[in-house]
Amino acid sequence: MDNTTTDTFFNGQVTVKQSRTGYRYSIDAVILAGHVRPRPADRIVDLGTGCGIIPLIIGFRHPGVKLYGVEIQQDLADIARANVKANHLEKRVEILPADMRTLKPSIVSGPVDQVVSNPPYHRISTGRINPDSQRAIARHELKVTLEDVLKAAEAMLRTAGKFVCIYGSDRLVDLFARMRACHIEPKFVRLIHSKAGTDARLALVEGVKRGNSGLIVGPPLLIYRRDGDYTDEIQRMFAPEK
């Protein structure tokens, strides 16, 4: 039996295969991809691309950009490459099966305009580690740490390039401190809430390499309405732009 499932985006215009039992993308990746607003001809690196969901969404919405998805787990990189081919994006999306700690700009023909990432939120010492290795690596800092992600972003970005991530709101202080240590200045944060009246669980964060200080706090992002359906803003992330 095929150990993958297939989902669709944008009224069936994009198909995404992912592991049936291993790592599966979450709404976090959809929110992150929906937030990215590149300029025409921007070059973007996705650190820890998994099945390639973020490059697929960005590539579909922004046909002028070039994307590179970096994935350390070979089996996930193989799925990501298959997804790129199935969606006919081979000319604009390249999957790199590599350890982000070894990345240099030369691997993608020079520094890039944006780096995006949905990194593991949990330290090894916190929370139960999932017995499935793919899921464990995605959620806990087993293969890469927050510092590894930010050092890779610093290495790959051009000066004034943008770093965008979703991270656990309980570790925002860690994130901001490490961003500054890597010369990526926090410029924007938006807290993400499951529903109105609940504490934020995640945060959407932007930074600029060697940018000036000055942080903007955006309005809260709610995922679900009180009836359990996605909010209008989240639903638009699954629909093709008009």
Describe this structure in words.
By secondary structure, the chain is of the alpha/beta class. It has one domain: Rossmann fold (3-Layer(aba) Sandwich), CATH 3.40.50. It is 27% helix and 28% strand. The strands form 2 sheets. Strands 3, 4, 5, 6, 7, 8, 9, 10 and 11 form a 9-stranded mixed beta sheet that branches. A two-stranded antiparallel ribbon has the order 1-2. Strand 3, helix 2 (53-61) and strand 4 (66-70) form a beta-alpha-beta unit. Helix 1 (27-35) packs parallel to helix 2. The longest helix has 13 residues, at 74-86. The radius of gyration is 17 Å and the shape is globular. The N and C termini lie far apart (38 Å). The model is unreliable at 129-142 (pLDDT under 50).
Brief rundown of the structure:
With 242 residues, this protein is of the alpha/beta class. It contains seven helices and eleven strands.
